[in-house]
Protein: NADP-retinol dehydrogenase
Amino acid sequence: MVVLLLLLCLPFILYLATPKIRKMLSSGVCTSNVQLPGKVVIVTGANTGIGKETAKDLAQRGARVYLACRDVQKGEQVAREIQATTGNNQVLVRKLDLADTKSIRAFAKDFLAEEKHLHILINNAGVMMCPYSKTADGFEMHIGVNHLGHFLLTHLLLEKLKDSAPSRIVNVSSLAHHLGRIHFHNLQGEKFYSAALAYCHSKLANVLFTQELARRLKGSGVTTYSVHPGTVHSELTRHSLFMRWMWQLFFLFIKTPQQGAQTSLYCALTEGLESLSGSYFSDCHLAWVSGQARNETIARRLWDVSCDLLGLPTDW
Ligand SMILES: NC(=O)c1ccc[n+]([C@@H]2O[C@H](COP(=O)([O-])OP(=O)(O)OC[C@H]3O[C@@H](n4cnc5c(N)ncnc54)[C@H](OP(=O)(O)O)[C@@H]3O)[C@@H](O)[C@H]2O)c1
Structure:
């Protein structure tokens, strides 16, 4: 009888305990009290999920925050929401479609003309498990948006970041990078394609890019970090019914977007992190990267191949 009663009460108990369980599981909290008046920030994919919460926190600290979104209407709605909650009117929306190098170049051109400085660039936008598709420039969607799009954006904004030093670049990667491999002979997934693995490969590319960029930026005053935000309730699972089910099944163990933003914020704000440039963080701590992610030869080759695909010089 007692057991039956307990079983009947279990959903209610779980419901009451959910906030506590979530708090326990999301140990990483950015405790920095750095304020950002006069600082300029770009967050890509800031109209929803982790990016939106990252932008909100940075706006709360007084920065001028650019929401770089492919859907300007959605972005404007979020900008109004952030302005209302933070009281910061300097939340601006600009069109950026990372699946189109023309859009990336147009975004960067306008930004460079508009702003004297850029102190923080958060390369956050991402897609996961899309059916096989290509960007406007013919790149496979995951590698095109998650890696090449941010690679080009960073290249175009780098001089501004250097001029604004100390400045930081945060690349939002994932724990999924551990399953990733850079198959140079099949970078565009034309020989074989798995939507899940394509995501992992692109997230590995984020970690390799961060490390190679850090090596090249030594002494410039610009530092860079890659992060795993945790498993976060967001729209990322939109292309996979299975993943949506999994996220629902394990909802107790999944972070809110606000909790998911903490490691990006930690890397963007924490004082004294400069010597760890190039490192990978999770839950606001240094974390292990996969074997391939530590391979400098692969990082350098990926850099050269990315430059080649995008028509960029390799020595930046
Ligand atoms: N959620 C997780 O559990 C998790 C775990 C590990 C890593 N991450 C990483 O965290 C980052 C943020 O993801 P999220 O969970 O917040 O997902 P989300 O809610 O789906 O947000 C992704 C954002 O990226 C934008 N985006 C997608 N394609 C774009 C494009 N071509 N150009 C410009 N923006 C584009 C989306 O814009 P639209 O709304 O217009 O589509 C959206 O704003 C991603 O890099 C993801 O890989 C997430």
Remarks:
- The two ends are 71 Å apart (CA to CA).
- The chain has a mean pLDDT of 94.
- The CA atoms of residues 60 and 86 lie 5 Å apart.
- Residues 32-310 form a domain with the Rossmann fold fold (CATH 3.40.50.720).
